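Aim 2 progress update. The chain analyzed this quarter is reproduced below.
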Amino acid sequence: MITITVADFKAYFSRGQFAYGTVLPAVLDADITKAIAEASGVFNFGLYPTDAIGIQALEYLTAHFLQGTLDATDSQGQAEGIQSARSAGGISESLAIAPWMLEGEYALYATTFYGRRWLTISKPYADGAVFAIGGATTP
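Predicted structure tokens:
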């Protein structure tokens, strides 16, 4: 079983992606612990061929859940959709997200950068190949 700790998470995302601390609005250890638990609840541990790849995927999935919590706090719980275009003051922005990320159960994870990274890491292992071989059985 693949696991990560708060210390592992902080070491993996140590370049300022998250502002860690002990006083709000900093990201608290309890926030990371909660995100690890949420990620572990939906994480398929047997999907990855090596623990190293699985750990990397779990780090990004944890970051996805943590960012979702931070976004919910910033927006006071207002739901956000997947942005496809935005403009203000003559400046416009649109995001191109792979169509397969927006389909079905993947759409939830496409709402953050970290979720999209997790999807990108996981997709090669989640897809399967089905082959049909002609033949017959004998009674």
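The longest helix spans residues 51-74. The chain has a mean pLDDT of 82. These observations will guide the mutagenesis experiments scheduled for the next reporting period.
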